[in-house]
Design a protein that fits this description.
Elements lengths: L6 H10 L16 H7 L12 E3 L5 E9 L2 E13 L7 E4 L3 E4 L4 E2 L7 E4 L5 E4 L4 E6 L14 E3 L3 E2 L1 E3 L12 E4 L4 E4 L4 E6 L5 E8 L18 E7 L1
Parallel strand pairs: 12-13
Antiparallel strand pairs: 1-2, 2-3, 3-4, 3-17, 5-6, 5-7, 7-8, 8-11, 9-10, 9-15, 13-14, 15-16, 16-17
């Protein structure tokens, strides 16, 4: 049981998605009491490069991969209820919104999260705007080491559709290209998002990779193995 959204629903959802614009901005302190409490039940990343650990938060499936020291990749991240009887690594009933916590390296909740995924195919990223400002740069993830002066502020904190053509739009705030001819979603690049904590000015960089399970569409036309979010992040 893998089809959670239809091709038509993606197309209709994309028709309703607007493309936002830009602007630009600096860095560190200790976690607050809520974050300290959350950290006590955090996922501890593998110390081995390439090592993985499963997510453990309630209603959360997928795993965390150690890409490099301090750099982690969430793979097949999704939340929901009722394990699938055929594939117990996924939920039969995926949630309409997925929440993620950078503090715990695990799934969050509607009252405790750093960013969320919702909307068409759960592919729209929205940061917790009470805590963060969201920026983007058209720079490879590995090359981003700080918040540059020419970073583009996304005023509403949301990154969704980039374009409906094969190459993407560098001026769009969105991260995914929806190919209207084959109904396949792919990530636009180079594109890195930067979250700046409004209080501490701590920075996190984020790269969004895929909505498909194991980062690979199960068909060249209208793939159905989604939404399983894949993204990489690191604290700067």
């Amino acid at each position: 049981m893998k089809i959670k959204f239809t091709t038509l629903s993606i197309a209709l959802g994309l028709a309703a998605i607007g493309m936002t614009t830009s602007c630009s901005k600096d860095n560190s302190l200790a976690p607050n009491i809520e974050e300290q409490s959350l950290s006590k039940r955090a996922v501890t990343p593998s110390t081995t490069i390439g090592g993985t650990v499963n997510f453990t938060a309630t209603g959360t499936k997928g795993y965390l991969k150690t890409i490099a020291t301090g750099t982690y990749g969430a793979r097949n991240f999704h939340q929901g209820t009722v394990p699938d009887l055929v594939d117990t690594t996924q939920w039969k009933n995926p949630a309409s919104t997925y929440y993620y916590s950078l503090i715990t390296n695990d799934g969050g909740t509607s009252t405790s999260y750093d960013f969320q995924f919702s909307g068409t195919a759960n592919a729209s990223l929205t940061v917790n705007t009470t805590k963060y400002d969201l920026y983007y740069v058209n720079t490879a993830f590995e090359s981003v080491t700080t918040l540059p002066d020419d970073a583009n502020l996304i005023s509403n904190g949301t990154a969704a559709s980039n374009s409906t053509n094969g190459t993407g739009n560098p001026s769009s705030t969105g991260w995914y290209i929806y190919n209207i001819s084959n109904h396949i979603m792919s990530s636009y690049g180079p594109r890195t998002y930067i979250l700046e904590n409004k209080t501490t000015h701590e920075l996190w960089k984020l790269r969004l990779n895929s909505v498909y399970k194991d980062e690979t569409p199960n068909s060249g036309f209208a793939a159905t193995n989604f939404p399983f979010m894949s993204f990489d992040y690191k604290k700067l």
